[in-house]
Each structure stands twice: as structure tokens, then as C-alpha cells.
Amino acid sequence: MRREVLTDEHTLETVLESLLEHVQIDTQGECDEETLFTILLRAASTCSTIEHTAATLEDAPDGGTIRYHLKKCTDMALMEAALNAALQARVPGNLTASAQRLAIDLNLQPYYGTPTEEEAPYIYRSQAHAGTCSFYAYATCYVIRKGKRVTMALWPVRRDGLMVGIVTRLLDRVVRFGLRIKRLYLDRGFFSVPVIRWLQTLDVPVVMPVVVRGKQGGTRQLLQGGGSYKTRYTMKSREYGEVTFEVWVVCVYHNGRHGKHGRTYCAYVVHQVTLGLRAIYQDYRRRFGIESTYRLKNTCRIKTAMKNPVVRLLFVGIAFLLIDL
Question: How do strand 132-145 and strand 123-129 relate by DSSP bridges?
């Protein structure tokens, strides 16, 4: 499979211009900002290491010099703001002309070892994957339009970060850009009392899968019958109280498609969405393209053993800039 976009000189030059405009790193001597970002972009576009890339470029500083300057990146808030400005700088202005479909998701990168005091606040605990339960986590907000997905906002998730705070941060970023929300898609990781209650308060049109819990009661009791239907459900939490919301249950019959038989239930939290029951199932399926974007992002992410959370955020931001453009 050819990766023309990632090796196209114009794309690299455009990302370089964006980084120079928005991201500031204290450099000196032969390693100025343009040289540093050029090496990082070359490493990202070839999914290589800084050392290998520096060694293959003529008159480039060595990998140790590059890492020395990168270690100066210690302000997470400054880096987060700079990368979000860079992501939005090249987005077509016509996106604000009409309401758009947005999706929020979490991207987890495995972390191994014992975190230092600097790293610990950004180590997110989740289900075991790739031999670890510790991850660097990045929340992203996408615009989905005409089959394309463009990252509009990026947020480094802290260890003690609440899901409702993640949603608030990302929506604030895109709303300040001028985007209006046609529909917001969330994955099942956001299924919680605080998030649902907050989105109802904001009156945001949202679609989110229901997490099935219980053996017979709980949300599992919603998955019954031979047809699709709408209902209301009250979810309770000892810590956060309760919230009542609308649930749409879609019953999908496989009829031998892809070698499957029988039926599958798909239940969604739905608020302020004007679609039919069957349409909501197909509509949410389009969100799965986000996962392919994450996989593509991993093909243009700098290989590194550096654990500095600010530098790791920079590398992730560069990957998303390349994919966007």
C-alpha cells in the first residue's frame, strides 16, 4: 500500500509551517526550530526513530542533541494549546457554515515501567492491553464529513481526569472554533451518570452505546423482544445520583450475512436526535472509521523511548497533523 500523503514534500512543508507558527521550543546553536521540526517530521513520516533520521539527513545534528532540546518541553498546558491551534489552523473555514457531526474518543498508548513524579499524573489506568494496564491517554474530537474524519481537538488525559471533564474540554475547543454540533458520537467508555446528565443540561444532540450490565436486570433487561423500540431508562450511581434518559434499542437480524445467523441487539443513549430507529444503527456505524484513523496515525508516529509526557503529546500531535493534511 503506497503512502503518498506521508512522503509528499508539500505536505511535510505545510506541517512544518504550522509547527513553526504555533509550537515554540527553546533551541540554540546549529539546532534551530526549523531543523528540529524537520527531523521530527521526517521521523514521523517514515515511522522511524530520531537517531536514525538524524543520521540519514545531511548536516543534521545528532539524536542526542535533538533529545536535549526536546527535554526542555515541560509545560503541558502550553503544548496542548499550541497543538490545538495548529490542528485548527488548516481546517477549511466552510465547516462553520453548517452544523457538523462530531465524535469523541480515547486513544491509549501502552506505558511500561515505573512512572516518575513527572510522568505519574499522566498515566491512565485501563483494561489490560499489550501486556500492561498503564497508558498514556489522548482524547480527541473529530469532525466527520463526506466520509472524511478530521481531528479538531486533542487533550492529554490525566490520571485523575473525569470523563465529563474530557467532554467539556474538547467541546469547548471546537465550539470556540465556531463549530455547531449536528450530532455528537461517544463510545461506551463515556456511558456514565455525570456525562449523560451534563450533555442533557447542554442540550447536545448525542448518540452513545449503552453498556450492558446485569444478568437479567440492569440494562440487560432492555435487550429483549423481536423488534426495535424506544424506551426510557433510569441509571443510578452511589457517587453521582441518578439520571433518566431515552434509549433506542435496535434489533438486527443477520439472515446469514457474513456467515452469521440469529439476531443482535444494539442499544443507544439518544438525546435530541431526529432519526429513525434503523437509521440510528447505520448512522453510528460510520463512527467506527475513527478506529482506522487511529491505526493510520500509528503508522506515522515517531518511534521513541522518551517518556516525557509533554514530548509524547508533541509526537502524537505531529501524527494527527500529518493525517489531517
Answer: antiparallel
| 24 phi/psi in degrees, rounded to 5 | -115, 130
Asked if 206 and 184 count as a contact pair (C-beta separation under 8 A), the reply is: yes
Nearest CA among 165, 168, 265, 141 for reference residue 210: 265
Q: Do the Cβ atoms of 320 and 154 come closer than 8 Å?
A: yes
The CA distances from residue 172 to 12, 119, 144, 317, in Å, are 29, 26, 18, 18
Q: What pairs with residue 250 in β-bridges?
A: 266
Q: How far apart are CA 42 and CA 45, in angstroms?
A: 5
Measured in Å, how far apart are the chain's first and last C-alpha atoms?
A: 19
Phi, psi of 297 (to 5 degrees): -60, -35
pTM of the model: 0.88
| Residue-level pLDDT, tens digit, the chain, 325 residues | 454 444 578 888 999 999 999 999 988 877 899 999 999 999 998 888 999 999 988 888 999 999 999 999 999 999 999 999 999 998 877 888 899 999 998 888 899 989 999 999 999 998 898 899 999 999 999 898 887 788 999 999 999 888 999 999 999 999 999 999 999 999 888 999 999 999 999 999 999 999 998 888 889 999 988 889 999 999 999 999 999 999 999 998 877 666 777 788 999 999 999 888 888 988 888 776 555 555 666 677 788 889 999 999 999 999 999 888 8
Burial grade of 168 (CB within 10 A; 0-12, 13-18, 19 or more): middle
The DSSP 8-state label assigned to residue 215 in this structure reads S
Catalogue the long-range contacts made by 10-13 (C-beta closer than 8 Å, 24 or more residues apart).
11/322, 11/325, 12/41, 12/42, 12/45
Q: How far is CA 268 from CA 121, 187, 194, 229, in A?
A: 33, 10, 17, 11
DSSP 94-139: GGGGS-EEEEEEEEEEE--S---TTTGGGEEEEEEETTEEEEEEEE
